[in-house]
Design a protein that fits this description.
With about 190 residues, the chain is an all-alpha fold. α3 crosses α8 and α9 crosses α10. It is globular.
Length: about 190
């Protein structure tokens, strides 16, 4: 149990998929304007990343290992993520009421999300076991949620700040994301990578 907790903490803080591996920046920038929307997207991503890690681990055991379909790995991962998002439409609408209104726009954002593919690929790379795959998916989702909520809160303050014109908009957002990434480097000694 302690090992699973350390996997969640290490994945969320030390090996954060957004600031350490630089995946998931597009939904981070897209949802950073409203705090409620960012919170709902965080819940959806925790759910989807956990589910994706488990499903991809199970597919890795069955199709890739037993049937020897290694050459189709990436195609099957993309199709698996697309199927998970399509089948998870009702649970996502229950998790996030605002996302039900914006479901078409966010379904496209979730379908083409590099974060889900990266989470699946990192699960395959580590090949941990089912409980560790669940902990890895949960930690990845929690790490994304933590960065998204921090970034949204900081961005809300920057919207009303008196900034020079060349720094406003996307440039200050990327500078802020870089500063958050440097802050997460402080967690490096917390858990073994």
């Amino acid at each position: 149990m302690l090992t699973l907790l350390s996997i969640v903490i290490a994945t969320a803080l030390v090996n954060n998929i957004v600031v350490h591996h630089l995946f998931g920046i597009s939904p981070l920038l897209a949802a950073s304007r409203r705090l409620r929307l960012a919170g709902e997207l965080s819940l959806v991503m925790i759910y989807l990343l956990t589910l994706t890690s488990v499903v991809i681990y199970l597919i890795n055991i069955t199709l890739f290992s037993l049937a020897g379909m290694h050459s189709f790995r990436y195609l099957l991962l993309v199709l698996c993520i697309f199927a998970i998002i399509q089948l998870s439409d009702k649970p996502i609408q229950r998790l996030a009421a605002n996302l039900a209104e914006l479901s078409h726009r966010f379904k496209a954002l979730l379908t083409m999300n590099s974060l889900l593919l990266a989470g699946g690929l990192l699960t395959l790379e580590r090949n941990p076991g089912l409980p560790a795959a669940i902990a890895f998916g949960l930690g990845t989702g929690v790490g994304f949620a933590l960065v998204l909520l921090m970034f949204t809160a900081i961005d809300a303050r920057l919207q009303v700040a008196d900034l020079p014109a060349p720094v406003k908009g996307l440039s200050i957002q990327l500078i802020t994301l870089g500063l958050i990434a440097m802050a997460f480097l402080g967690f490096t000694g917390l858990a073994a990578s």
